[in-house]
Structure formats: C-alpha cells, structure tokens
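Researcher: We plan to redesign the surface later, but first we want a full-length starting point. Tokens attached.
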C-alpha cells in the first residue's frame, strides 16, 4: 500500500459532490484552513483541519499554500499535425475564421498536416502538450479527433488518445469528432459524407471502443442543426453520448438541439440565445464555455452569468487547438472567466473542476476533494483562491499530484 499525507495546507478549496453544481450552488465551495489531505493507493481517504492522521507513509509539506482539486480540461482538440501561425497575419487583416475555412484553410489545413503525420509523430507531439498541461495544473483532459475526416484517419487520432491515456499520467477522455468539417473529397457530396459518418465512421469508433462521446461542429457553412441532429442520433444509436459545438459564431439552433437531444455538454455558446439557455437548463446540459477562444477570436463573450442564473451548470475549458485557441493554460482561462464573464473565483473553480468533470462523465472520479475520488491535486504558489484568479500570466502551479503521485514540481 502507498500513502500520501499532505499537511500544512494554508487553504484547501473544493466544490463537493459527484454531480455538476448549478445556480447559486456553483459558487458554494468548501474552504478549510490549516488543513491536511490523506490518500491511499491514489485515492482520497480523508481531509480535515484537525485530528491529522499519524502515518508511516509519504508526507508532503504544502508550506501554507492553497490546495485545490487537479484541474479538468473538458474541451481540447489535442491531436493535430502542424500549426497555423500563418493565420495570424490574416486575423490582423480581419479575415473571419469561417472565411479562412471556406477558402480551404483553417481546419482543412490542419487536416492535411494531421493526415501526413504518423501515429508516433502525433503521439510525441500530443505528449509534449500533455506535459505542459500537467505543469499548469491540469490532471484530466478531454481530447477530440476531427482532423482526419475519413474513417482510418479519424481512428488513427483516436488510437493516439488511447495510447496516451495508457502511457501518460494524464487521464484522457476520447471524443469522436469526424463531423468537424466537410472533407475536400466530399465538397460536392454532403450526403455522401453524412452517410459515411453515420453508417461507417461512428459505428467503427464505437465498436473499437475508441470514443465515449460524439461531437459535431454545428455552424454556418459547416453542419446545420438538422445534420447535427442526425449525426448525434447516430452516435446515440451506437452508444456515444452527444456533445455539440454550438453558437460559436452564429446561432443556428445548436444550443436548442443540445438541450433537446440531452447532450452531456454544449460547447462555446458565445452567441447563445435566451431560448437556447432555457433548453440547456431543461436538458441538464453542461455549458462548456471557452473564454480564451473569445479572446483569441476577438469576439464577444458567452452569457455565463445569465446561464448560471437560469440554472445551467457552467464548465470552463481551454479549447486547445491550432486555429482559434492555441492555448492550453487553464489558469489563463480562469482569469478571463473572472474578468470577462464576471464569474466569482468560486464559480470559476467549480467550472474548471467538478463541472468540467461532469461535462466529460468523470464527476464520480475526479473534480473535487471528496472521499473515494482520485487524489488529483494541485498545490498552488498562492495563499488563497482569490490570488490564483487575480495574478495574470505566471504559472502558479507549485506541485501537481496525480493519483497520489507527484508528477510535477
Ligand atoms: O482547428 O479551428 N472551432 N473547431 C471549431 C475549431 C475551432 C478548431 C480549429
Ligand atoms: Zn472545439
């Protein structure tokens, strides 16, 4: 048996429970001062601010620092070849994201680079990104395919995710996103690609147990709400839980569809209409908001406060991808969520831990410092949660612990 006792914690802050927190509950967190956490075999046994257990196992002095659950990044496009730094000059000339895509750039240029890369190359590149994420305090992350856009190429990306989940300390949750764009081969044949997705690609990903979720980019010029419904229904028929990129640039019915089809999460929601918020609340869908993308696209910000007021659980994620958000730092996401969404530090913490875990179906295992959850923890170079949300641009992760083992710091 291995055990770990973290003592001399200045402040322990965590949401509680195994389900997403919504409404005023999103802002209620447990706070313990002068605290300790005891873990055995990678699992949290207890925590408190008195009666510290006496143990012969490993001891770690937190030096009076802040400790929170490990962060959960509920939305990443982790696996890709190449980069898109050439798009920066276009952005500065105000060329819109969707125009770059329509001209065969954007996602489609990453598709080219990803198809050209071997599984080993994609694995090495993504592993380096995961190292960086861990160093910033992320201990679980969702990862999407979506730069293959053909059966074998999408399965290749999903196999990389599976391999990294085994080989890297990070927990990865795989999402099939073959419906990320219409591949160039099907430019004149939308129906052909929809059939391929629904009848071959989704069943293959599900049968090979390479994906847990099915996601679709519901957007002007990409997939319509009706096409998205068909794709997500095919996912459901094959045992994949729906997720949806909705209302990122245009509101074309994605958030309404998310609530109606019972998606576990809806992503972006930058221009989500009131009716969409209502459907999300009714469907119990987590709003997975990506504030660093709004910053990077120089767009407006999702109506996060209205969502919380309407009882929609809000999660916050990085959207790490080579186009609209080449950023994997969730600390920066937390800063932007406070300043631009006007969320409180407590609401933000819940958004990057428990609600993010719920968005990827992992809230029974990670996302809070609760008995029987994984001992995924971050010791921060910060005295309290306010400080963590207030400092900008530094990496404040001092020690990152994954399943009771120190993996960074
Ligand atoms: O590669 O541009 N929005 N998908 C939907 C993305 C951004 C990723 C990309
Ligand atoms: Zn995305």
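Model: Full-length starting sequence:
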């Amino acid at each position: 048996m291995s055990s770990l006792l973290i003592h001399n914690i200045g402040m322990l802050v965590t949401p509680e429970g195994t389900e997403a927190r919504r409404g005023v509950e999103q802002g209620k967190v447990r706070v313990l001062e002068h605290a300790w956490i005891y873990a055995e075999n990678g699992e949290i046994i207890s925590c408190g601010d008195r009666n510290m257990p006496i143990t012969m196992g490993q001891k770690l002095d937190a030096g009076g620092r802040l400790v929170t659950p490990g962060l959960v990044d509920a939305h990443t496009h982790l696996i890709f070849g190449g980069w898109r730094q050439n798009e920066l000059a276009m952005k500065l000339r105000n060329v819109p994201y969707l125009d770059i895509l329509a001209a065969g750039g954007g996602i489609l240029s990453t598709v080219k680079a990803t198809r050209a890369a071997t599984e080993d190359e994609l694995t090495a590149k993504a592993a380096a990104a995961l190292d960086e994420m861990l160093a910033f305090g992320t201990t679980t992350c969702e990862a999407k395919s979506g730069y293959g856009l053909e059966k074998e190429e999408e399965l290749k990306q999903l196999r990389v995710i599976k391999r990294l989940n085994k080989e890297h300390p990070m927990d990865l949750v795989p999402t099939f996103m073959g419906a990320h764009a219409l591949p160039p081969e099907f430019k004149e044949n939308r129906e052909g690609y929809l059939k391929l997705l629904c009848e071959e690609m989704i069943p293959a990903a599900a049968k090979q147990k390479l994906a847990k979720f099915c996601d679709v980019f519901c957007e002007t010029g990409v997939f319509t709400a009706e096409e998205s419904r068909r794709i997500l229904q095919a996912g459901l028929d094959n045992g994949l839980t729906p997720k949806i990129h909705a209302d990122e640039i245009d509101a074309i019915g994605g958030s309404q569809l998310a609530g109606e089809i019972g998606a576990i999460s809806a992503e972006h929601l930058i221009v989500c209409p009131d009716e969409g918020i209502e459907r999300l609340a009714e469907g119990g869908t987590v709003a997975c908001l990506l504030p660093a993308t709004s910053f990077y696209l120089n767009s407006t910000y999702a109506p996060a406060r209205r969502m919380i007021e309407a009882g929609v659980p809000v999660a916050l994620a990085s959207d790490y991808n080579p186009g609209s958000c080449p950023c994997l730092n969730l600390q920066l996401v937390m800063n932007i969520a406070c300043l631009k969404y006007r969320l409180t530090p407590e609401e933000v913490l819940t958004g990057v831990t428990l609600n993010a875990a719920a968005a990827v179906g992992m809230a029974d295992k990670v996302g809070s410092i609760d008995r029987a959850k994984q001992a995924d923890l971050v010791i921060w170079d910060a005295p309290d949660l306010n400080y963590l949300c207030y400092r900008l641009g530094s990496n404040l992760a001092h020690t990152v612990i994954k399943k009771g083992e120190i993996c960074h710091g």
